[in-house]
C-alpha cells in the first residue's frame, strides 16, 4: 500500500490479508448472498480501500465462475429436454399407430437420423417394444407404455431442474450486480480520497512556502 493511500484510510491500518467485507452468512443453493455497502467511507476506515477492492474483485470472480457453471448446466439441460421430447414424440407415435392397426402387423415407414442433420428412409418392423439409451452404453427394452412413463418422468425432472437453474442464474446475477456496485463505489471513494489528500498536501506546502 502506498503512503498516500495509507494516509486517507485511517490512523490504524488493517493488513490486506485480514480485511473482511460484510457478509449476511446466507446462501442460496450454495451461492453466498452479497450485502450492499451502506457506508463505504466507514468500511474504508475500518479496513483498507485497496484491501476491500481486492476482496470484492475476488468475490466478483467467484460469482462469475458460478455463473459460467450454471450457464453450461442450463445448456446441457436444454439439450436433454429436446432429446427426451423427440424420443417421447416418437414412442407416442409408435403406440398410436400400434393402437390403430390392432395387431400391429404392418411395417412403419419413417426417417432415421444417421448423423446430425442427415436422415435416411427406414422401415420399422412390427413391434410392441422400444429400446431406450439410459447412458453409459446401456440400452434397455421397454413396452410402449413403460417407455412413455419413463420418458415423461425424465422430461418432468429435467424441466424442474431447468427452472431451478434459471432461478439460480437470476439470483446469482443479482448478487454479482450488488458486488460490482460495491466495488465501483469503494473504488470511486478511494480515488476521491487520494485526490483530496493530494490537494491538502499541495495546499500545505504552498502555505509553508508563503510563510517562509
From TrEMBL:
UniProt keyword annotations, A-Z: Chaperone
GO molecular function: tubulin binding
CDD domains reported for this sequence: Prefoldin_3
Biological process (GO), any one: protein folding
Presence of keyword Chaperone: yes
InterPro entries xref list: PFD3, Prefoldin, Prefoldin_subunit_alpha
GO cellular component terms attached to this protein's record: cytoplasm; prefoldin complex
Keyword Iron attributed: no
Cross-referenced Pfam families: Prefoldin
Similarity remark: Belongs to the prefoldin subunit alpha family.
Purpose: Binds specifically to cytosolic chaperonin (c-CPN) and transfers target proteins to it. Binds to nascent polypeptide chain and promotes folding in an environment in which there are many competing pathways for nonnative proteins.
Assembly information from the UniProt record: Heterohexamer of two PFD-alpha type and four PFD-beta type subunits.
Protein name, entry field: Prefoldin subunit 3
Organism field: Chondrus crispus
Lineage of producing organism: Eukaryota, Rhodophyta, Florideophyceae, Rhodymeniophycidae, Gigartinales
